[in-house]
Every structure is written in C-alpha cells, then in structure tokens.
Amino acid sequence: MIVILDFGSQYSELIARRIRETHVYSEVMSYQTDIKKICELNPKGIIFSGGPNSVYSDFSPQCDRKIWDLGIPILGICYGMQLMVQQLGGQVEKAKYGEYGKALLRIDDPTDLFTNLEDGSIMWMSHGDSSTKLPEGFSILAHTENTPCAAIANHDKKLFGVQFHPEVVHSVGGIAIIRNFVYHICGCEPTWTTKAFVDETIDGIRKKVKDRKVLLALSGGVDSSTLAFLLHQAIGDNLTCMFIDQGFMRKGEPERLVSIFSKQFHIPVEYVDARERFIKKLEGIVDPEEKRHLIGHEFIQVFEEESQRLGPFDYLAQGTLYPDVIESADTNINSSTGERVAVKIKSHHNVGGLPKNLRFKLVEPLRKLFKDEVRRVGQSIGLPEEIVRRHPFPGPGLAIRIIGEVTAERLNILRDADFIVRDEISKQGVYHDFWQAFAVLLPIRSVGVMGDKRTYSHPIVLRFITSEDGMTADWAKVPYELLEIISNRIVNEVEAVNRIVYDITSKPPGTIEWE
Ligand code: XMP
C-alpha cells in the first residue's frame, strides 16, 4: 500500500484515487499522523500532498523529521516537495514568477520517475513558492521555463519531489509518473482489483456477522444497493433491507426499486410507507434548514420504530464511504491567530447515514472505497445501469427542490416536471453528459396565456450542471433545442406550470440544490 500524507491539498483524495487506478491500495492520512501508526501499516511508499500554505509561514504544517530516515520511498508533490527541500536543508522562497496552469516540462534526467515519459509534456502547476537551493544529495530531474527545480530526486534515498501536480487530469503523462513511482520505485504489485475486493469483503462479512441478523436502510442509490448485494451474497436471508418511502422520491422510483430487488434479484425488501407522516411534519415549514432537520429527524424516528417491529437485529449495515472516514488535514487556518475555521453551508441528510448512537453494532463494508470504486463493484456484481450510474439524488429528495412549503399537490407538480426532464435527456442520449439535471418548483406565480386564456401559475426552474465531484460545478451549456423540447413538454403536460426558466449559476456562488 501507499500512504498519502495530506497537508491540506484539495487534490489529496484525487492522488489516492489515481494510485488505486493503478490497482495499488492507498490511504489518505493527516500530516499529523503518528509516525508509528504509519509504520504499522507497512507502506511501500509515501506521498506528501500539496497544500495551501507556505513552508516558511508561521503556521505551516510540518511532519516528523524522522520520516526521511525510514528508508521508505517518498514523493513530495508541490507543498510536499517544498517541505522535503526545507526540512532536509535546502531553501524555498517566494518565486519571482508564480506558475498557475499549464507548463511545459523539460526532462533533464529520464530515469526513475520519468522513465518512458515524453520530454515537453504539459504539466499542471499551481505555486507561488519555489525551491531555490536543493538539499545535499539531490539533483534536478526536470525544469520548466519559470521553475528550474520542477522535479528533484535523491536517488540513493529514494526521495522524489515534483513541483507540478501529476494527479490532475490536465497533466499529460501524470499517471505515468505515478505508475513509475508505485511500481518501479516502491515495488508495489497491482493487487487492488474489484474482484479481489468483492471476494475479500464477502468473506469478511461472513466472518464478522456469522449467523446474526443485519438490517440495511435501502435508498435506491448506488451505495446502499451495492451494500445490499454484497450482504445478501454473504449472509442471505439474515439480511433485512428496509426501504422507507418518505414520499419525496421521483416518479415511479419506489416501485421500481422494490421490483428490481425483490423480483429481479430475489432480495426481499420491507417497504415502509411513511409518506403521510413526512408531509404532515412539513406542514407550514418554509425554512430550508428546518425542513432538512425535520426530515432527518423523522427518518430516524421511523427507522427506529420499524427496526423494532422487524427485529431484533444485531447489526446495522451502513454505506459509509472512504471520503467520510478520511481524517484529512484541517488546514483552514486563520493566518493571524492560527485558529482553525469551519463553515457550514447545509445540514445534509443521508438515508444511509443514521446516527452512531443507535443500539446496533455497525457493519460498513464500503468504508475503504471511493464512489467510483463503489460503482465499479456495483457493476461487477450485476447491479443495473439505472442504479449504478444514477445522478446523485439528495436524501431529503424532492422536498428540497420545492421552495417554500411542501404539499402533496406541489410534490405532484414537481414530480411530473422532473419526470419529463429525465425522460427527455434519456431519450436524447445525453443523461450522462450531466452530473445532475433536475427541476425546481418556485413558490411564486406568474401570468401567461394559453389557448387565449389567461393563466396564473407556477414557474419551474431547470438546473443542469456539470461537475467532477459536486464540490464545484458549472451550469451546463445545454443546446437550445433540448431546452425547447423540455420546456414545451412541461408547460403542455404539467397543468399547474406556465413558465420555464434556466438556472445559469455555477457553484460557487450558487449551490447545486436550491435549498
Ligand atoms: P449542494 O446543494 O450542497 O449539493 O451544492 C452538493 C451535492 O450534494 C447533494 N446533496 C445531498 N445529498 N443529502 C444527500 O445525500 C443531502 O441532504 C444533500 N443535499 C445536497 C446534491 O444533490 C449535490 O449532488
């Protein structure tokens, strides 16, 4: 395995994913992790991530200096390289010219890290500091126009540094550098495969759970569905899948989910119809955070009641993923006081994410996986495309796409409009061009004219976005023709709607959902 020490880079998870793409297991840990804990994992290599700080600033994250003498190969990326230079006796200074974006990499030493890499490859840079004096034993592997030390190495000690970001997709040949590091320098074997994961996980579940009973809250998303499959293969009927219908799912989804699982895959699903309870709870509620809290709270309530009815159970299966368990470096630091700052935008409600203080022991077989790895596992065990490649859908569902009060009537309006959006983009074969594409119902009305009659009805907002991870997003530049078809269909087929508008806000400053 490869350990990635996170110094606050926005790319730390990406580094881990790139390494796993080479079929080598990797984990992200905070730069503050005790060196003993790192050694216990017996990593074949360590990568230092980039980070937002300057190595010479007062609060710069530092690592235990003993790490350089462990004899484990290390690759420092950006801040990670600068830290290597600084701690080993070289010098880092504010560069005369920073480098942001593309840079042409000229290779001076085509061995080790740069084996089989083309001279003149484009690499992605993002730095204002540069290494101006190398520590003893180091030499330059590559340079760019503005950065003489763009890549460095101490070959004897197997310490390497790159000022650019090989992990980002814009760095041409970046993945080759990562492969050279993990295979040739660290000597890793490509053993991290989907099949190996599935076999090991099923075996692991059997050993842990034995003949005890497990409860799973199914949501219809790829995580809980994959979990249901793995658990069912491992323990058969000792698994109970519970699907709580809050009434905020999309048109036809609850029926489809129950039918896929029980009819197609012979995994029985306990369908809990809680629609009335939820809509009653939301009566008169317009504040987005209050809505989210009430839905989350009610969900737990229903879950507890139903689990008592169906139980007893020994274990609760959770779809916890790797990004939820990474203890990344928190380097959001106030530069004058050194205090850490956290900002909350929304309280997320996740159907799988029940509180830890329920009376169950937990089984979390996906906790080592990234989302794209879950998709691959789902695919490999035969989950249908419609689940594996479904757009993300928030736990509170359509309720947070109805601005203002959620009523049965307004839910029906939005559900019909949402159906048309999904139907059209699927028909046109562009469903996967978007990260998400959905409709939002506004609480206002406007005047229109239909069939010579005045109308006074609701506008629907179309929100189509592209994104890599949902953290940042851009509004999709959808062809006018597609917008036209969708707009026509919605105003013609959904009675209470007479106007369609298109949201052209990226994230930031907007968020993806309207609430
Ligand atoms: P925002 O609106 O914060 O959304 O830009 C980012 C991504 O998260 C999804 N989302 C949620 N997912 N529970 C979830 O499971 C939630 O409460 C929730 N709120 C937003 C959203 O659809 C987008 O993909």
Task: Quickly list its features.
515 residues, alpha/beta, Rossmann fold, GMP Synthetase, Chain A, domain 3, 9-stranded mixed sheet, 5-stranded parallel sheet, 14 helices, 31% helix, 23% strand, binds xanthosine-5'-monophosphate
Question: What would a concise description of this structure say?
Answer:
The protein has helices spanning 12-21, 35-40, 79-87, 174-185, 194-209, 222-235, 253-264, 275-281, 288-310, 322-325, 371-380, 385-388, 408-427, 480-493; strands at residues 2-6, 26-30, 45-48, 74-77, 91-107, 121-133, 139-143, 151-154, 159-162, 214-217, 239-245, 269-273, 315-317, 361-363, 436-441, 446-450, 453-466, 474-475, 497-502.
